[in-house]
Amino acid sequence: MDVIGAGFPRTGTMSLKKALERLGFGPCYHMREVLARRRGEDHTRAWTEAARGGPVDWQSLFAGYRATVDIPSAVFYRELLAVYPGARVILGVRDSEAWYASVNETVYALSKIRVPQTEAFARMVDDVFWNGVMHGRFEEKAYAIRVYERHIEEVKRTVSPDRLLVFDVKEGWGPLCGFLEVPTPAEPFPHANEADDFIDYLRLKWMAGDAEGAGASGEEDYRRRLHERMAAFEQRLMDEIEAGWREAE
Question: pLDDT grade, residue 42 (50/70/90)?
Answer without folding.
Answer: confident
